[in-house]
Design brief:
The protein has about 150 residues and is mainly α. The chain has eight helices and no strands.
Length: about 150
C-alpha cells in the first residue's frame, strides 16, 4: 500500500494539479526498507504524470484554447520558448512550478515522444535520487523522527 500511495502521489504531483511528492518519498525512505523500489515507483509515477500533461496538450490544445482554459497568446509564447530551448528545457521538468508547464508545452509543440520520455525520465529520476542521497547523507535526525510513533 505504501508503494501504491507513493506512485499515485508522484503521478498527481507531475500533472498540472498542485502538490508535491518529495516529503512522502522521504518519509517512506526513512520508514520502509525498500530504497530502490520506492525510488523506482516515485520516478515512474512522476514521469507518467508528465506524460499525461504531454498528451493533454498534444491532443487537446485546440479544445483548451477554444474554451478559454489556455490563452492563445500565452501558448504561443510558451511554444516559442520551447522552440528556442527545446530538449534542454525538458531536463528542467523536475523543477517545481516550472516543470509541469514545460511538459505541457512539449506536447503542444508535438515534440518527439520518445525523446520527451527519455529526457523527462532522466530529469525525474535524477531529482528523486538526489533528494534521497541528500537526505541520507545529511543524516538529519528530525526527518527520521517525523513518524517516530509508527512502526518500521
Amino acid at each position: 500500500m505504501v508503494c501504491l500511495t507513493l506512485f499515485f502521489v508522484s503521478l498527481l504531483a507531475a500533472t498540472l494539479l498542485p502538490g508535491g511528492s518529495e516529503a512522502l518519498l522521504l518519509y517512506d525512505l526513512f520508514h520502509y526498507d525498500a530504497f530502490f523500489c520506492l525510488l523506482f515507483l516515485a520516478t515512474v509515477g512522476n514521469t507518467l504524470g508528465s506524460v499525461i500533461n504531454y498528451f493533454i496538450a498534444r491532443k487537446g490544445t485546440a479544445y483548451l484554447v477554444e474554451n478559454g482554459y489556455v490563452k492563445s497568446i500565452r501558448l504561443s509564447k510558451a511554444q516559442s520558448f520551447f522552440d528556442r530551448f527545446g530538449a534542454p528545457a525538458l531536463l528542467f521538468s523536475w523543477l517545481p512550478v516550472l516543470g509541469d508547464p514545460v511538459t505541457f508545452v512539449a506536447g503542444a509543440a508535438k515534440y518527439d515522444f520518445r525523446k520527451f520520455l527519455a529526457l523527462v525520465l532522466i530529469a525525474k529520476g535524477g531529482r528523486y535520487a538526489m533528494v534521497a542521497m541528500l537526505a541520507f547523507a545529511s543524516d538529519v535526525a528530525s526527518i527520521s523522527s517525523i513518524g517516530s510513533g509508527f512502526p518500521k
